[in-house]
Specification:
175 residues; two-stranded antiparallel sheet; 21% helix; globular
């Protein structure tokens, strides 16, 4: 495929949790803005459960081509393209001319993308707290990745937890 890169974006607790009961656990406005700004103008690829977790008033995510992956052949998502595999989702992004589609979750989609070695860059917001959850970000081998940027943010009146914006590139991308 003719991408500059395939990226993923996720917010992860210290213990790997990314969600519970198909919902976000924390509220970090700076992280939501980072997500919006980083994915703006790109294709966002997500699983059906992730699509369902987005409040109706925000679906589809504005300013982005929304692609939903599901095994359910009869599933419809207003304002989004429905596909049945990660490769089909990436082909959809390529046909749309996107040079950097973003995989935005959930846990199963992240796991598939990493296992299939499809991701070139990871935007990981590390929430510096442990949470009870039922959805996790998969472990990855940090030896195969290079941390190219990190910004630490402290708690404040709008953010209960400290967190860090981290960008990881595959080691062979930015030597």
């Amino acid at each position: 495929m003719a991408f500059k890169r395939v990226s993923l974006i996720v917010a992860v607790a210290e213990n790997g949790v990314i969600g519970k009961d198909n919902d976000l656990i924390w509220y970090l406005p700076r992280d939501l803005k980072y997500f919006k700004d980083t994915t703006a103008g790109h294709t966002v690829i997500m699983g059906r459960k992730n699509w369902d977790s987005i409040p109706l008033k925000f679906r589809p995510l504005k300013g982005r081509d929304n692609v939903v992956i599901t095994r359910d052949k009869s599933f419809r998502a207003d304002g989004a393209t429905v596909v049945h595999s990660l490769n089909e989702a990436l082909e959809t992004a390529e046909k749309a001319g996107d040079e950097e589609p973003f995989i935005i979750g959930g846990g199963q989609i992240y796991k598939m993308a990493l296992e299939q070695n499809l991701v070139d860059r990871m935007h990981i917001t590390r929430v510096h707290e442990k949470f009870d959850g039922d959805t996790f970000f998969p472990q990855f081998d940090e030896e195969k990745w290079k941390l190219v940027s990190k910004e630490d943010l402290d708690p404040d009146h709008r953010h209960k937890y400290s967190f860090s914006f981290c960008v990881w590139d595959k080691n062979n991308l930015s030597q």
